[in-house]
Specification:
Layout (H helix, E strand, L loop, with lengths): L1 H21 L3 E2 L3 H18 L13 H5 L8 H8 L7 E2 L6 H4 L2
């Protein structure tokens, strides 16, 4: 099981890095956040067969759930509005980390 999880995490990291090259988004500069989300994506891939966003509820309805496969359909709007997607994995140019927000 541990090998399977590590393999999935590596596949997901590769896919995420490829996505950031093709898009104008970046991964969150906080490695702890990225690691947490990658672990969640790997666990959901093992459990459900797809890398569903760990911040969203899997309903079992394939059409509905397709929208939350990472990168989910909501991430662009969230990044535009908030500087980061809901799970904080992807960030845009308007991202303000904890230090910049004064937190």
């Amino acid at each position: 099981m541990e090998d399977t999880r590590e393999q999935e995490e590596n596949k997901i990291r590769t896919l995420l890095n490829e996505y950031t090259v093709r898009s104008h988004y970046k991964l969150n500069p906080d490695d702890k956040i990225v690691d947490r989300v990658v672990k969640g994506l790997a666990m959901r891939t093992i459990k459900f067969g797809y890398a569903y966003c760990p911040c969203r509820l899997v309903t079992g309805d394939k059409d509905r759930d397709r929208k939350i496969i990472c990168p989910c359909v909501y991430h662009e709007e969230e990044i535009e509005r908030d500087g980061e997607c809901h799970c904080n994995l992807f960030v845009g140019d308007n991202y303000q980390g904890k230090d910049e927000k004064g937190e």
